[in-house]
Amino acid sequence: MSGERRVVVTGMGVISPIGSTVKEFWDSLENGRSGIGTITRFDVSNFKTRIAGEVKNFNPEGIIEPKEVRHLDLFSQYALYAVDQAVRDSGIDFERIDLFRAGAVFGTGIGGINFLEQQMEIYLTKGPGRISPFYITGMITDIVAGHIAMKYKLMGPNFVTTSACASSAHAVGEGFYSIKRGDADIMVTGGAEGSISPTSLAGFINIQALSRRNDEPGKASRPFDRDRDGFVMSEGAAALILEELESARKRGAHIYAEISGMGYTADGYHVTAPHPDGLGASKSMELALERSGMNKNDVDYINCHCPSTQAGDKAENRAIKHLFGAQAYDISVSSTKSMHGHLLGAAGALEGIATILAINNSVVPPTINVENQDSECDLNCTPNTAVEKEVNFALSNSFGFGGHNATIGFKKFS
């Protein structure tokens, strides 16, 4: 479609349970390494699930001022850490551009729950007078986009998307659309989550969403496997610099991939369960394909949402088969959540980066822990070992509680 503004990815940053740089993240994916372990941040002896994907050895020194760290929830710290990587990777000098043409859209599902829990404990033990004056600004979800804008003096579109596990896929999508419709030339986008806390862990346990494979943490996240028993909660952040193509060319930027299209739908079905036939998910992929100007036979790889739940994995597999028919079995698919766990609101951006890296490296990352593949999840899930394959076009799926569906189409840039 000539004359349209094209959107490319010129910078990426990651902090995750399997790596605190993009290079480390990809090395873990390619080699099938799990980042899941026993929770160390608080006492989990009384919890039925005692495992998660924690970020290891996090140190924001040099990126966030020490006095600011006390006022920022972990999700905002992770976001700023990942964004710092992405900005440096992109080579953008924000002092040399029109700051009204640069913005930030970030996603988070839960936001500042650690800050909330800490302040509630203070309130219950010491009274209202001891609540931090930074309580509200530390806890509210929108603040993460504000902090990004303040750090880089960005004055373009600025907001947060919250749609559970689709949050950062929607953020990437809204960054994409901000550039497509001419509201900006550069968008800092992605997602962050720092929600491994006592109440959020207990809440997910009590809706029976989490794996209880406490004795084998590295095998707990097992999408497509018959014996999966729930997802594994994880934390971290992923950031992408999106740029209008001519802007990127003008400054000689390295281009990782092109975002070619987005699909948004809803299930309209249930507060936590996906539509059993995956109708919303199927339509989301179909829209991303159409808006990318691609055909079904152009899809080389799908990074699946597949969180390692019985219902979720089956529904997504049905959705793929519904859309692609017999051709579904020719498409390489995988769920990288098998290695890094489920980053909730940050999942879409992180898995988007995994998809871009698959395109750049001509490698499909594996789904590890597939020991007995479910007969209802019988697609080519790239079991246990990465596969070399030319990936020219790929889809990345993110589906959230409440029935929110988002699919991003990524193209090899040419």
What does this structure look like?
With 414 residues, the chain is α/β, with parallel strands linked by helices. It folds into two domains: 7-250, 3-Layer(aba) Sandwich (Peroxisomal Thiolase, Chain A, domain 1), CATH 3.40.47; 266-403, Peroxisomal Thiolase, Chain A, domain 1 (3-Layer(aba) Sandwich). 33% of the residues lie in helices and 18% in strands. It has 13 helices and 14 strands. It has a ten-stranded mixed beta sheet, sandwiched between helices. It has a two-stranded antiparallel ribbon with strand order 2-3. The chain has a two-stranded antiparallel sheet with strand order 11-12. Helix 11 (310-324) links the parallel strand 9 and strand 10 (332-334). Helix 3 (74-90) packs parallel to helix 6 (143-152) and helix 10 (279-292) packs across helix 11. The radius of gyration is 20 Å and the shape is globular.
Short description:
This protein is of the alpha/beta class. It has helices at 22-30, 66-69, 74-90, 113-126, 135-139, 143-152, 167-180, 198-206, 245-250, 279-292, 310-324, 337-340, 347-361; strands at residues 7-15, 37-38, 51-52, 102-107, 158-161, 186-193, 236-244, 257-266, 301-303, 332-334, 363-364, 387-388, 393-400, 404-411.
Write out key terms for the chains shown.
2 domains; alpha/beta; 10-stranded mixed beta sheet; 13 helices; 414 residues; Peroxisomal Thiolase, Chain A, domain 1; two-stranded antiparallel sheet
